[in-house]
Design brief:
Strand content of chain A: 35-45%
Strand order of the largest sheet of chain A: 8-5-6-10-9
Helix content of chain B: 10-25%
Oligomer: heterodimer
Number of strands of chain B: 27
Number of helices of chain A: 2
Radius of gyration of chain A: 18 Å
Strand content of chain B: 25-35%
Shape of chain B: globular
Radius of gyration of chain B: 22 Å
Distance between the termini of chain A: 67 Å
Largest sheet of chain B: 7 strands, mixed
Helix content of chain A: 10-25%
Number of helices of chain B: 9
Chain lengths: 125, 419
């Protein structure tokens, strides 16, 4: 027995309004997407909804107090607050380069890393 | 840094607009360029926009704000464009064509005067504050603009508060609702005056729905309570003419109120120069080469009109840099000979004048949401728009040949709903 679920794709700022026809977690059709990413998003959202996570961590020895960071892949939506709390424990010392890996696995064995999104030189005190 | 006393081109602002303007000028032959940036670091507002969504057009990748700034700054550095940070331009005086004096204060050089043959304004914009909308009540601490709270959280490492209400459902307010929730605060709700949010639907989903944060449309903040610190606010539904229905007000305990109620161009220097300002955008009026009413002074980015996508800022600023380069080679008066008039459903368009025989890019915003519309520029151009909403700037290009054949002196720009 198939049902139709409306979803908004969050992959890019277009925010296409999708209609997903599915039976349980099996996708039958996706419509309303302007690109293939929308179809992939809809399928993922039914089975294992994920979100990319950007936040900051404490940094010492830099010109400001926080280093912006991001996860290298989306994390499970229902664990996002817990993962953010875990990331809050990380402390970084300048210098750091945009792209540096700060944590190898933000969510168990997932292989999703945490990387810096900004570079800071070490400032002499 | 060895600061000279003369430059061909000085750019005020080292954010995405200033950096792209510098590259646009360099790519068109200007050798002698100086970027002045008031903050400690380059990157402008992108430094605090730690979320993703930048660069889809320019880099074909989705980057965070700092990553976008980093990539662009690498280009500026590779091109050996002079940069001075911690530098505030206190005043500019135009001494005549191709001679503008800038009075600069910077810790590394003290007070310094620089003469520039051309100037590009790229200072960005400011946020509207509580005073702009006259919220009644006491004046406790805990009332911040959303951007200020963003800088506190993302750069200074200071949490603005623990129990937070947000007025305004534009993207900055929505982004901060998520940000503060992830940092351990409780966001009690987002309140929006209009019957619709003007933030991206994507942000309603990933910033509010995902965290169970309620969005209250057609609601305003009607009173602020608190002695030294905010203790609560009254929120009141509004009617169709946006007037509060005070019998239905509710009191919401909170210790922080964020205001995401609009951005306006930073115009202090433009006003000192006597530059004509546009009543709708609140930024300088510019001709088709993004030149202000003072010859040789150009403007681009949020200082000209507030943008939603940094990619459009970059494209516009590259054009401003290019125009400044051409002007430096040949300081001629603007030859625009066709007026572009905002028509049906168009709030404003920029520029408002164009020149026959050249290619132009026009930016505009519509006055109300339209789902299925057609953009018409007189009889010379039509463009289908599946969605046209006030919160998303629309840009289109007119090719040189389309204007070549037009022999009138004005064109009306309309956005007409289909059917």
């Amino acid at each position: 027995m198939s049902i139709k679920t409306p979803l908004t794709c969050v992959c890019c700022p277009f925010g296409c309004r999708l209609e997903v026809e599915h039976e349980g977690n099996t996708v039958i059709t996706v419509s309303g997407n302007r690109c293939p990413r929308g179809a992939k998003y809809a399928a993922q959202e039914l089975v294992d909804p994920r979100r990319s996570l950007t936040t900051t961590v404490a940094i010492t020895g830099a010109s400001i107090a926080r280093l912006p960071v991001k996860t290298t892949a989306p994390v499970p939506k229902n664990r996002i607050c817990q993962i953010a709390r875990d990331i809050q424990q990380i402390r970084v010392q300048a210098p750091v380069s945009c792209g540096d890996v700060l944590c190898d696995a933000v969510d168990g064995d997932s292989g999703i890393q945490l990387v810096a999104t900004r570079s800071f030189a070490a400032m002499s005190s | 840094m060895n600061l000279k006393s003369h430059y061909d081109l000085v750019i005020i602002g080292g954010g995405p607009a200033g950096m792209a303007a510098a590259m646009g000028a360099r790519q068109n032959g200007v050798g002698d360029i100086l970027i002045l940036e008031r903050e400690d670091n380059m990157g402008g507002i992108l430094q605090q926009c730690i979320h993703a969504g930048f660069g889809l057009h320019v880099f074909k990748e989705e980057l965070t704000g700092p990553e976008y700034a980093h990539r662009y700054l690498q280009r500026v550095i590779e091109n050996e464009i002079a940069i001075l940070t911690h530098a505030c331009v206190l005043d500019i005086v135009s001494q005549g064509t191709a001679c503008h004096e800038l009075y600069i204060a910077a810790p590394s050089v003290g007070l310094h005067t620089v003469q520039a043959r051309a100037v590009i304004l790229a200072m960005g914009c400011r946020e509207r504050t509580r005073q702009a909308i006259h919220i009644p009540g006491s004046r406790p601490s805990g009332v911040f603009t959303a951007g200020c709270a963003q800088k506190m959280t993302n750069m200074m490492g200071v949490l603005p508060g623990k129990r937070i209400a947000i007025l305004g459902s534009g993207d900055i307010g929505l982004i901060m609702a998520r940000r503060l929730t992830l940092e351990g605060a409780e966001v009690v709700g987002v309140f929006e005056l209009m019957p619709y949010s003007n933030g991206l639907t994507r942000n309603i989903v990933q910033c509010l729905d995902d965290y169970g944060i309620p969005l209250h449309l057609s609601t305003t903040v009607s009173h602020i309570y608190g002695d030294t610190r905010l203790t609560s606010i009254d929120v009141t539904p509004v009617d169709d003419s946006l007037k509060p229905i005070s019998t239905q007000k509710r009191n919401i305990p909170c210790d922080t109120l964020l205001l995401s109620i609009g951005l306006i161009p930073e115009t202090e220097l433009a006003v000192k120069l006597g530059i004509a300002l546009h009543p709708r955008t609140r930024g300088p009026i510019v001709n088709s080469r993004l030149e202000t009413s003072v010859p040789g002074i150009f403007a681009c980015g949020n200082v000209l009109h507030v943008h939603d996508l940094v990619d459009f800022v970059t494209k516009e600023s590259l054009r401003a840099g290019h125009a400044a380069a051409q002007w430096l080679q040949n300081p001629s008066q603007c030859q625009d000979n066709i007026n572009v008039i905002p028509g049906q459903n168009v709030g404003y368009c920029l520029p408002e004048t164009v020149i026959r025989g050249a290619e132009h890019t026009i930016s505009l915003r519509v006055t109300k949401p339209l789902y299925g519309a057609t953009l018409k520029l007189g009889d010379i151009l039509t463009k289908k728009l599946p969605i046209a909403i006030p919160s998303e700037m629309i840009t289109f290009t007119i090719s040189a040949d389309k204007l070549e054949k037009f022999d009138g002196s004005q064109l009306t720009l309309d956005v007409i709903a289909n059917g």
